[in-house]
C-alpha cells in the first residue's frame, strides 16, 4: 500500500524473524514503522492545497508587496521603480501617516490593557461555583462574537452621537454630554470603548486557565492564612502569567489590524481631523481609494514589521515576567 | 504533599472561600448582573430602536417603544438601492463557499501534519503557525493585483477560492490539535486491513473529528460573514454587495430620516450570528477555552 521511500530498504528484507526481538531487530522495526508513517508522497498530496495557498497567496504576495513598496504603482500602468521614496515620504512629509500612527498606538496601548484587566477581573468573579454561570459567560462573550460586524459599528456611532444613548445615560447624573463621535478629542475613545466591550474572548481563555490552577497551593495558602489580595498577587497572577502573555500577544496583533469600526464610525474618512484614522484604514484609503498601491505596499510592510517587532518584544520581555512551572 | 491529609479546619476554611454564602453571594450576583446588563444594553437598544418610529428614537430613550412600528423592517428591506434579499443571498453564497473550502482544505492539511513524518515537517509547521500571525493587510495589495489580473474583481471568487487553499491556518492548527487526540491505533488497524491514507482520512479521521469541524464551520461562517475589509475591496458593484456592504449604504444616505430602517436592518444583519451563537453557545465558549481562539 504505502510506497515508502525505498532508500536503504535492503536491510528490511523478508528475513526479519519475529522471534527473539533483539535490540537490532527492534531498531529495525522501529525504522520501518517510521518510514511507513512517512507515507512517501501521501503527506504532500494532502498538503497540496495548502502549499498552493502558502506560496501563491502568502509568500509570493509578501515578496511582491516588498517589491511594490519601492515602486510607484497605480494598478493600471506597470509599476515604476522609485527606490526608497515611498518610505522617505512616509516618514518625513506625510502628516496623515503620523496621524494614523498616533491614533493606532493610542488605540492599542489604551484598549489592550483595559480589555485584559476587565477580562481577568470578570473571569475571577466567574471562577466560583455559581448558579447561572453559563448565562453570565454567554452574556459576556456575545459582544466578542459580534464585534467585527458593521451593524455593531453602526450602533456605536448612534450610541455616542449627539443625541445618543450615552448622553441620555449621562443626563441621569445631570452631566451635559456632547457629540463624542464628531469631537476629535473623544472620537478615538469611542472606538477604544468598543474594543474593551469585546473582552469576552480573553475572558474565556483566562477562565480556562483559572480552572487549571493547582488547588493544593491554595490549600497551603489558606493554612498560612493568606488573604484574598495576597492569594491573587502571590499565587493566581504569577501562575496565570503564561495565559496573560498569550492573551496579550493576540490582542496586540488584533488591535493593530482593526479596520471595520474605524471605517464605519467615521464613514470611511478617519475623521474628525484624522483622529480615528487607524493605520489599516489609512492603508486601505491609499491603496484602494487613491490607487497609490506602491505607497500602500510600503505602509503594509511597515505594519508587518511593527507587529513582528511588538510580538518579538513581547516574547523577549516575557522571560522576565512569565512563569512556567517546571 | 497532598498525600498527607491536612487537619480539617483549613480545608473547611478553603471550602468556605470557594462556595460563597449569604450576602457575599448576593453581592457577586448583583455585580455580575450589572456588568451583563451594561454589556447587552447597546444590543437591546438597537433592537428597541428598530421597532420605534424615527421621531421616537432619540426623543424617547426608554427601551419599550410607545407603540410597535414594524414598518422599519419592510422599509429597510426594500430600502437601499437593492432589496436586502439580494445582499443576504450574496452573503450566503460567500459564507457557504468559504465554509466548504475551509473544512476540506484545512482538514486535509491537518491530517498530514498530525499523522505523517516527512522531510522538513517542522519547518513547514512553523511556517503554517507563522501565517496565523501575518496581518491580512500585508498581503492585501498583491493578492488584489493577482485577482485583478485573473479578472475576478466583482466576483465572489477572491472571497471563496483562498479558503480552498487553506489560507486560514488557524483552523489547521485547531484540527491538528484535535487529530492528535484521536488514538493512532485506529489508523494502524485500518492500515492492517489494507486501507490507504485517503481512506483512513475519509472513513476514520473525518467522522471522529466532527467537533473540530463544527467549530471550524461556525467560526468560518461568522468571520467570513463579518469580513468587511475583503468584501469592501473585492465587491464594487451594487448587485454583488453582501450584507455588511448593504448596511453601509444606509450610512451614506442617512439624512436623519431613516434611522429606524437602519436599526432594523442592523438587527437583521446580526441575526445569523445571533442564531449561531444561541444554538452553539456552549460549544463556542468551551471550544474557545480549550483551544485559545482569537477574537
Description:
- The complex is a heterodimer of chains A (326) and B (295).
- Chain A has a domain at 97-321: MetI-like fold.
- Chain A has 326 residues and is mainly alpha-helical.
- Chain A contains 14 helices and 2 strands.
- Mean pLDDT of chain A is 87; it is low at 1-18.
- In chain A, helix 4 (95-126) packs across helix 9.
- Chain B is an all-alpha fold and 295 residues long.
- Chain B has helices spanning 8-18, 22-49, 54-57, 71-79, 84-115, 121-133, 137-149, 157-160, 169-180, 184-192, 197-208, 210-225, 228-234, 243-253, 259-291.
- The two termini of chain B are 40 Å apart.
- Residues 1-8 of chain B have low confidence and may be disordered.
Q: Examine the coordinates and then state which fold CATH places here, giving the name of the CATH topology of chain B.
A: MetI-like fold
CATH architecture type of the domain at 97-321 in chain A:
Orthogonal Bundle
Structural class of chain A: mainly alpha
Q: Roughly what is the average pLDDT of chain A, rounded to an integer?
A: 87
What is the CATH topology descriptor of the domain at 97-321 in chain A? Answer: MetI-like fold
Q: Estimate the global geometry of chain B from the Cα principal axes.
A: globular
The CATH class label of chain B is Mainly Alpha
Overall number of structural domains of chain B: 1
Beta-strand proportion of chain B: under 5%
Query: Helical segment tally of chain A?
Result: 14
CATH first level of the domain at 97-321 in chain A: Mainly Alpha
Tell me the distance between the termini of chain B: 40 Å
Q: How many helical stretches of chain B?
A: 15
Backbone shape of chain A: flat
Radius of gyration of chain A: 27 Å
Query: How does the major sheet of chain A shape up?
Result: 2 strands, antiparallel
Give the tally of β-strands of chain A.
2
Radius of gyration of chain B: 25 Å
CATH superfamily of the domain at 97-321 in chain A: MetI-like
CATH superfamily of chain B: MetI-like
Order of helices and strands of chain B: HHHHHHHHHHHHHHH
Amino acid at each position: 500500500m504505502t510506497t515508502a521511500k525505498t532508500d536503504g530498504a535492503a536491510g528490511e528484507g523478508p528475513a526479519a524473524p519475529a522471534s527473539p526481538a533483539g535490540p537490532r531487530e527492534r531498531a529495525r522495526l522501529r525504522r520501518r514503522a517510521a518510514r511507513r508513517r512517512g507515507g512517501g508522497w501521501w503527506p504532500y498530496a494532502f498538503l497540496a492545497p495548502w502549499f498552493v495557498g502558502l506560496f501563491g497567496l502568502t509568500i509570493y504576495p509578501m515578496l511582491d508587496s516588498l517589491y511594490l513598496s519601492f515602486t510607484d504603482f497605480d494598478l493600471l500602468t506597470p509599476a515604476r521603480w522609485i527606490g526608497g521614496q515611498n518610505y522617505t515620504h512616509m516618514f518625513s512629509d506625510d502628516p496623515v501617516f503620523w496621524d494614523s500612527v498616533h491614533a493606532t498606538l493610542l488605540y492599542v496601548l489604551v484598549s489592550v490593557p483595559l480589555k485584559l484587566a476587565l477580562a481577568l477581573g470578570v473571569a475571577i468573579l466567574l471562577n466560583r461555583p455559581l448558579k447561572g454561570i453559563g448565562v453570565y459567560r454567554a452574556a459576556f462573550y456575545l459582544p466578542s462574537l459580534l464585534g467585527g460586524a458593521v451593524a455593531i459599528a453602526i450602533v456605536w456611532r448612534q450610541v455616542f452621537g449627539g443625541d445618543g444613548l450615552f448622553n441620555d445615560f449621562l443626563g441621569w447624573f445631570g452631566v451635559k454630554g456632547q457629540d463624542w463621535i464628531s469631537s476629535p478629542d473623544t472620537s478615538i475613545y469611542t472606538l477604544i470603548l468598543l474594543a474593551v466591550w469585546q473582552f469576552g474572548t480573553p475572558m474565556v481563555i483566562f477562565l480556562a486557565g483559572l480552572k487549571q490552577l493547582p488547588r493544593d497551593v491554595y490549600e497551603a495558602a489558606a493554612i498560612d492564612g493568606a488573604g484574598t489580595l495576597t492569594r491573587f498577587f502571590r499565587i493566581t497572577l504569577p501562575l496565570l502569567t503564561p495565559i496573560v502573555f498569550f492573551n496579550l500577544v493576540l490582542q496586540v496583533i488584533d488591535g493593530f489590524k482593526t479596520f471595520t469600526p474605524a471605517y464605519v464610525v467615521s464613514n470611511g474618512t478617519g475623521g474628525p481631523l484624522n483622529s480615528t484614522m487607524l493605520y489599516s484604514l489609512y492603508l486601505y484609503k491609499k491603496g484602494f481609494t487613491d490607487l497609490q498601491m506602491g505607497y500602500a505596499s510600503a505602509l503594509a510592510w511597515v505594519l508587518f514589521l511593527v507587529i513582528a517587532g511588538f510580538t518579538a518584544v513581547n516574547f523577549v520581555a516575557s522571560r522576565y515576567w512569565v512563569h512556567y512551572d517546571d | 504533599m497532598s498525600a498527607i491529609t491536612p487537619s480539617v479546619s483549613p480545608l473547611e476554611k478553603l471550602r468556605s472561600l470557594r462556595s460563597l454564602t449569604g450576602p457575599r453571594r448576593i453581592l457577586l450576583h448583583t455585580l455580575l448582573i450589572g456588568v451583563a446588563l451594561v454589556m447587552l444594553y447597546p444590543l437591546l437598544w438597537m433592537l428597541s430602536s428598530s421597532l420605534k418610529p424615527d421621531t421616537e428614537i432619540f426623543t424617547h430613550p426608554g427601551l419599550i417603544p410607545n407603540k410597535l412600528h414594524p414598518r422599519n423592517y419592510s422599509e429597510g428591506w426594500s430600502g437601499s438601492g437593492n432589496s436586502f434579499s439580494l445582499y443576504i443571498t450574496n452573503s450566503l453564497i460567500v459564507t457557504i463557499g468559504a465554509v466548504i473550502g475551509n473544512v476540506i482544505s484545512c482538514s486535509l492539511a491537518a491530517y498530514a501534519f498530525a499523522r505523517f513524518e516527512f522531510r522538513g515537517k517542522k519547518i513547514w509547521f512553523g511556517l503554517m503557525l507563522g501565517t496565523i500571525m501575518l496581518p491580512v493587510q500585508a498581503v492585501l495589495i498583491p493578492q488584489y493585483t493577482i485577482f485583478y489580473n485573473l479578472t475576478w474583481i466583482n466576483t465572489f471568487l477572491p472571497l471563496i477560492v483562498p479558503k480552498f487553499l487553506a489560507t486560514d491556518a488557524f483552523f489547521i492548527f485547531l484540527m491538528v490539535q484535535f487529530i492528535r487526540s484521536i488514538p493512532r491505533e485506529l489508523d494502524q488497524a485500518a492500515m492492517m486491513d489494507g486501507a490507504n491514507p485517503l481512506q483512513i482520512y475519509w472513513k476514520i479521521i473525518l467522522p471522529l473529528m466532527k467537533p473540530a469541524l463544527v467549530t471550524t464551520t461556525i467560526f468560518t461562517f461568522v468571520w467570513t460573514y463579518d469580513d468587511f475589509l475583503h468584501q469592501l475591496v473585492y465587491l464594487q458593484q451594487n448587485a454583488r454587495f453582501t450584507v455588511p456592504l448593504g448596511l453601509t449604504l444606509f450610512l451614506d444616505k442617512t439624512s436623519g430620516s431613516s434611522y429606524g430602517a437602519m436599526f432594523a436592518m442592523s438587527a437583521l444583519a446580526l441575526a445569523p450570528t445571533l442564531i449561531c451563537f444561541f444554538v452553539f453557545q456552549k460549544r463556542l465558549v468551551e471550544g474557545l477555552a480549550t483551544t485559545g481562539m482569537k477574537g
